[in-house]
Amino acid sequence: MSRFRFALAALLLPLAACASTAAPQANPWDNARQMIVVTTADWDSPTGTLRAFEREGEGWRETTQPLTVNVGRSGAGWGLGLHDARDQDAGPVKREGDGRAPAGVFAIGTAFGYAPQLSTGLAYKAMQANDWCIDVPDSPLYNRIVDRSLAKAPGLDQASEPMRRDLQAKPDDLYKVGFVIEHNAQATPQGGSCIFAHVQRAPGAPTAGCTSMPEDALRSLLAWLRDDAHPAFVLLPENEYSRLQAAWHLPTFDSSTIL
Q: Which one of 1, 40, 124, 154 counts the least CB within 10 Å of its CB?
């Protein structure tokens, strides 16, 4: 009997070893083959460093030189994206109108711009004079880009995000080219809306919550991005990136390398 118990224990040992080396938990963005990563010095920093990566096998290869970009005037706060809320540590939470860029992992959505066409592998929408992003939390079209001449819903007349900014009383080219960062896709009221990557107003000029950069750098990213690579956008303070990098299967890089 004792020999039988010894043999059974010997068989169970390899099983226990297998259990202790279980595969890493999957993340919703594990199918991404392109990733844009923005890291900030802390939660309140209005600037960050952008890096672009492409997947090679199980690892990541950096495809561009690091680039200084602008984020929210109040820094960043946890957003509503692909990441699990249980992974969030202490830190601010993104709210409508707070001037913070959403932190976390997000799908990259539609590209947009003023021109009829754009060089990009993303789906592209040429914006027209009536295209507005609805930033009114009570509207049933909250956090959606709509044609206000066709969509009739409460609150549309209060929206403050025209997508053809070049046609406004004080024109600018902020949305000349850009892409949607899919924050708060479920349109949770007050969760934050109309988050884009777009052209910067000036070097170092913070945004209302978007990520902005020079036009030529943004055009290069748009030409590189493609829908079939399931691209993801990551924005995190440096300490949060270090804490979550392994569990979230994010790229590793030398944080001291900044242009």
A: 1
pLDDT tens for each residue of 38-71: 999 999 999 999 999 999 888 999 999 999 999 9
Give CA torsion, residues 236, 194, 32, 239, to 10 deg. Answer: 0
The stretch 118-137 carries a mean pLDDT of 96
Tokens of 239: 């300490």
The amino acid present at 127, given as its one-letter code, is M
Asked if 201 and 210 touch (Cβ cutoff 8 Å), the reply is no
State both tokens at 141. 């079209």
For the chain, strand residue ranges (E) read 34-40, 47-56, 59-62, 67-70, 76-78, 101-113, 124-126, 131-133, 145-147, 161-162, 177-181, 196-199, 211-213, 232-237
Q: pLDDT band for position 198 (50/70/90)?
A: very high
Backbone φ, ψ for residue 257 (5° rounding)? -90, 100
H helices of the chain, where? 2-20, 215-224, 238-244
In this structure, which amino acid lies at residue 203?
A: P
- How much is the pTM? 0.89
